[in-house]
């Protein structure tokens, strides 16, 4: 792995930084350089190989581009980034943008992010403060003159009993790109955060996201993540239940487009007693797509009365598709309730037959069952406009299913 | 010894044994250390053919390039492979304790609890025995009966001499010499083990057990077992026994290879109860075993059942390669860790053929400071049409200092596969205990009862007398875990 192109890019980038920041950034970069891009030899990257990125040339993105206005949500406050740059014109909550400290440390990908990171969402709510509307953080990647590289840091800090709903949306259009996002979340006692993460990347793109959350007493984090792009996508989700009563619920639906690769990795640490975690991930894997779910729940010594459940279900629909699942448990306390389950299967033939016998065309019956499968996660998205749009995008919208049926019978 | 070449003589020296509960036993052992010379020497001592020496040397050279695996969820100090002696003369009877009086009373107490007859106790403890010991005659009668059926059951060394073609054909065909670090080490320096061959259409007339093979007593730390079942053959093989075994070896790296041809069935049951070390985790066996079955034939079936209660560290994944269409693989396991024991165990089911099925039932019990991991892989290849797997792994925690972990890998490449994985972790419920106590059952008995119930699904797969003993063994192993 040469990484020379990255070093070149870093020198350029560092030259543009305030002098005080350079040495810290260089440390991060050196760390990345030493470790290089992860390969499948590293257990956490068993199913996703980033080594080929080492041979590619990306430069920190310079130019902006047009914002796909259709993606803008009505009824939400917005922060819009195009190739990592804040788009003032479309951002209604520009005040929420800011430089964030580089707190999260981790593998080489996080180090790369820290070396190049630019600002992002900087949401700080004080005690009892509530966001009146969902906050949409739309990051758009557009084609430029050269393969671009965008690294951003976001931070969400909720004070006691504060409440917010934040949507991270990643849209990619054309061209080779490397994007990484690190989101740090701190929830004070009693805080409530609903976090949505939606990804629709382009086939030539690599998207790496990481969310690190620390939950204090009685706080709650609820997330719904939807993946439907064709790019090489990797999500890391690290949640620390640091104080009693904290609760996390992660839900995910992944349906990579043909050629897509989606790797979801969750890690929930029960560090205190009386915490609760729920995970529900569902995958629809078709046509040359590859999906991975690795979930880890760690119950630390003393974290008694832990209540944890992990469910992953996959529908494997094509001969060229591939699915890998690994729901892990590491338990160091005895008075706990921990369960996990994983399945891989197909649509139920009997259910299909039943629908056919009721006069529903084969394609529609299939779509209907897929819809039912995906709905369990999708319906948890409490922004109807977005939910409906995603259902259409993923071929899971009921209206579409029946329109097609009508069309077929008419022929 | 007079027939030994000079250089081998030089490699030998008198060495004092001090480990375990048996004091000052002397035996003839080669100097610690591993080199090509040692490998050649082992091969020469056993008067092996050229191809086997080749196999050993290839394995040794590969091993030199390998690294000790670190991925397992176990912790132990670095093993110095040059400090181990790789060949030990089969000990003569006079080296053992002269009578049971010389054996650790703690061990005898355990034997008593397990209800093991006196004569057997002597054998287990390695007491020098007279030739008239029951098992010897039992063994000979067995041999005769097996011979009549055409079944070959002998030591691997004997098989190399008597049936070289068979051994050459199958050895290393399931676990290649460079398969993993410990398998490579075993392939280079294995000293003995068992060989079983069931010819076409034969149903082995009795359950085969290493226990009845007198010459099996000191196979040492690098044991190699090869079982071949030809078309339509059936065999049930029992390994180990329920009583703690006297053993002075620290590292055990065995290899077991099973081959099942068309319609053949192999049932392999293990009760492993090596010395687990004391309450503080001093001593004990490192049990690093590679066990794999190749279901080569159509409709072949291999069933692994294991009860693992011993060893300080267990690293073991009995696996099935389901190559033949309609072949079946099963894995039933009870693993118990108490005090400072650590176990990282599970299975791999590789589905290659069409309509292949596998079942995994794993029960882990962790008490004291024990750490227990289930690590399993279910892989469905593109060619495995209609593959099925059901996996269930349950953990039971006793005490708040122990750990139970699950690492199940699922990899699917065929859209007609159906896989299910379920896992639960729990502790013994207060109400269950209370119910038993209210009926006059002591707490210890109640725990043992509940644990036995927890393991029932696996015990029922064991041959009858084994199942009873396994139940008792669990009770003994769990002693002191409550209250």
Question: What keyword list fits this structure?
Answer:
heterodimer, A: 411 residues, alpha/beta, B: 483 residues, eight-stranded parallel β-sheet, six-stranded parallel β-barrel, 27% helix, globular, disordered N terminus
Please, could you describe this protein's structure?
The complex is a heterodimer of chains A (411) and B (483). The longest helix of chain A is centred in the first third of the chain and has 17 residues, at 19-35. In chain A, α1 runs antiparallel to α2, α4 (349-357) packs across α5 (362-378) and α5 (362-378) runs antiparallel to α7. Chain A folds into 2 domains: 4-347, no CATH class; 348-411, no CATH class. Chain A has helices at 4-15, 19-35, 108-116, 349-357, 362-378, 384-393, 398-410, and strands at residues 59-60, 77-82, 85-86, 97-98, 120-125, 135-141, 148-158, 163-172, 177-187, 192-200, 205-215, 220-227, 232-241, 247-254, 261-270, 276-285, 290-299, 307-316, 322-331, 337-345. In chain A, strands 1, 4, 5, 7, 9, 11, 13, 15, 17 and 19 form a 10-stranded mixed β-sheet that branches. Chain A has a 10-stranded mixed β-sheet with strand order 3-2-6-8-10-12-14-16-18-20, covered by helices on one side. Chain A is an alpha/beta fold. Mean pLDDT of chain A is 91; it is low at 406-411. Chain A is globular and about 70 Å long. Chain B is 27% helix and 31% strand. Chain B has 483 residues and is an alpha/beta fold. Chain B has helices at 6-11, 36-45, 50-65, 105-114, 118-124, 134-149, 156-162, 164-170, 181-189, 430-438, 443-459, 464-477; strands spanning 12-17, 25-30, 152-155, 194-198, 208-209, 224-229, 234-240, 251-252, 255-260, 265-272, 286-295, 301-308, 313-316, 319-322, 328-337, 342-345, 348-351, 357-367, 371-380, 388-398, 403-412, 418-427. Chain B has an 8-stranded parallel β-sheet, covered by helices on one side. Chain B has a 6-stranded parallel barrel with strand order 11-13-16-19-17-14. In chain B, strands 1-2 form a two-stranded antiparallel sheet. In chain B, α3 (50-65) runs antiparallel to α9, α7 (156-162) packs across α8 (164-170) and α10 (430-438) crosses α11. Chain B has 12 helices and 22 strands. In chain B, a hairpin with a 7-residue loop joins β1 (12-17) and β2. The model of chain B is unreliable at 1-27, 90-95, 126-138 and 212-219 (pLDDT under 50). Chain A binds chain B through residues 43, 301-302, 304, 314, 316-319, 321-346, and chain B through 71, 73, 380, 382, 395, 397-427. β20 of chain A pairs antiparallel with β22 (418-427) of chain B.
């Amino acid at each position: 792995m040469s990484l020379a192109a990255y070093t070149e890019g870093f020198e350029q980038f560092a030259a543009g930084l305030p002098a005080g920041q350079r040495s810290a950034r260089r440390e991060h970069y050196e760390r990345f350089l030493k470790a290089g891009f992860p390969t499948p030899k590293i257990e956490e990257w068993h199913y996703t190989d980033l080594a080929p990125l080492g041979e590619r040339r990306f430069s920190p993105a310079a130019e902006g581009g047009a914002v796909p206005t259709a993606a803008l949500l009505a009824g939400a406050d917005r922060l819009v980034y195009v190739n990592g740059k804040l788009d003032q014109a479309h951002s209604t909550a520009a005040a929420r943008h800011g430089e964030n400290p580089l707190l999260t440390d981790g593998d080489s990908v996080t180090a790369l992010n820290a070396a190049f990171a630019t600002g992002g969402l900087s949401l700080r709510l004080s005690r009892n403060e509530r966001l009146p509307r969902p906050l949409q953080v739309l990051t758009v990647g557009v084609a430029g003159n050269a393969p671009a590289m965008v690294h951003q840091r976001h931070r969400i800090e909720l004070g006691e009993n504060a409440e917010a709903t934040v949507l991270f949306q990643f849209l990619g259009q054309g061209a080779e790109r490397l994007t990484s996002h690190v989101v740090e979340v701190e929830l004070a006692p009693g805080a409530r955060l609903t976090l949505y993460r939606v990804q629709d990347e382009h086939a030539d793109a690599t998207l790496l996201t990481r969310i690190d959350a620390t939950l204090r007493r009685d706080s709650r984090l609820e997330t719904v993540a939807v993946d439907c792009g064709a790019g090489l996508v990797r999500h890391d989700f690290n949640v620390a239940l640091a104080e009693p009563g904290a609760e996390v619920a992660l839900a995910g639906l992944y349906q990579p487009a043909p050629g897509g690769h989606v790797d979801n990795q969750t890690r929930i640490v029960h560090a205190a007693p009386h915490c609760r975690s729920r995970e529900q991930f569902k995958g629809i894997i078709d046509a040359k797509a590859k999906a991975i779910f690795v979930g880890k729940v760690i119950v630390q010594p003393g974290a008694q009365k832990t209540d944890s459940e992990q469910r992953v279900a996959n529908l494997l629909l094509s001969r060229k598709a591939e699915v890998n699942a690994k729901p892990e448990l590491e338990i160091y306390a005895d008075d706990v309730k921990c369960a996990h389950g994983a399945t891989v299967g197909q649509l139920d033939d009997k259910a299909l037959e039943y629908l056919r016998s009721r006069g529903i065309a084969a394609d529609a019956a299939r779509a209907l069952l897929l819809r039912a499968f995906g709905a369990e996660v999708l319906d948890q998205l409490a922004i109807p406009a977005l939910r409906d749009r995603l259902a259409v995008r993923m071929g899971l919208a009921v209206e579409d299913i029946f329109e097609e049926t009508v069309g077929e019978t008419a022929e | 010894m007079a027939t030994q070449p000079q250089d081998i003589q030089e490699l030998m020296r008198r060495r004092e044994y001090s480990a375990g509960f048996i004091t000052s036993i002397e035996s003839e052992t080669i100097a610690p250390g591993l080199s090509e010379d040692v490998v050649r020497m082992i091969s020469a001592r056993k008067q092996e053919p050229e191809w086997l020496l080749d196999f050993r040397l290839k394995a040794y050279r590969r091993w030199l390039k390998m690294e000790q695996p670190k991925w397992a969820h176990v912790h132990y100090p670095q093993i110095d492979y040059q400090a181990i002696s790789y060949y030990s003369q089969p000990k003569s009877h006079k080296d053992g304790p002269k009578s049971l009086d010389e054996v650790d009373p703690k061990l005898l107490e355990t034997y008593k609890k397990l209800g093991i007859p006196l004569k057997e106790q002597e054998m287990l403890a390695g007491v020098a025995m007279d030739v008239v010991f029951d098992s010897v005659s039992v063994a000979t009668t067995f041999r005769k009966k097996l011979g009549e059926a055409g079944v070959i059951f002998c030591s691997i060394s004997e098989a190399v001499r008597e049936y070289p073609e068979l051994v050459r054909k199958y050895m290393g065909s399931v676990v290649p010499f460079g398969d993993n670090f410990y398998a490579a080490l075993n392939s280079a320096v294995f000293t003995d083990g068992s060989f079983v061959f069931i010819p076409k259409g034969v149903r082995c007339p009795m359950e085969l057990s290493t226990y009845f093979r007198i010459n099996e007593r000191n196979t040492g730390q690098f044991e190699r077992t090869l079982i071949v079942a030809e078309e339509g053959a059936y065999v049930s093989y029992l390994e180990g026994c329920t009583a703690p075994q006297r053993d002075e070896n620290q590292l055990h790296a065995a290899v077991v290879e099973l081959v099942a041809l068309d319609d053949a069935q192999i049932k392999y049951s293990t009760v492993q109860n090596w010395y687990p070390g004391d309450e503080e985790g001093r001593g004990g066996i490192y049990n690093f075993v590679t066990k794999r079955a190749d279901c080569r034939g159509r409709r072949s079936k291999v069933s692994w059942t294991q009860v693992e209660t011993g060893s300080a560290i267990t690293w073991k994944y009995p696996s099935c390669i389901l190559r033949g269409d309609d072949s079946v693989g099963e894995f039933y396991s009870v693993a118990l860790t108490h005090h400072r024991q650590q176990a990282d165990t599970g299975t791999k089911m590789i589905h290659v053929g069409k309509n292949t099925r596998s079942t995994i039932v794993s029960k882990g019990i962790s008490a004291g400071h024990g750490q227990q991991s289930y690590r399993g892989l279910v892989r469905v290849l593109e060619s495995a049409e209609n593959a099925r797997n059901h996996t269930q792994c349950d953990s039971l925690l006793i005490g708040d200092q122990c750990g139970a972990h699950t690492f199940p890998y699922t990899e699917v490449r065929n859209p007609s596969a159906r896989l299910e994985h379920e896992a639960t972790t729990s502790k013994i419920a207060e109400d269950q205990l209370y119910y038993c106590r209210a009926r006059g059952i002591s707490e210890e008995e109640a725990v043992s009862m509940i644990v036995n119930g927890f393991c029932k699904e696996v015990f029922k797969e064991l041959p009858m007398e084994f199942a009873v003993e396994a139940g008792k063994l669990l009770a003994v192993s769990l002693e002191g875990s409550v209250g």
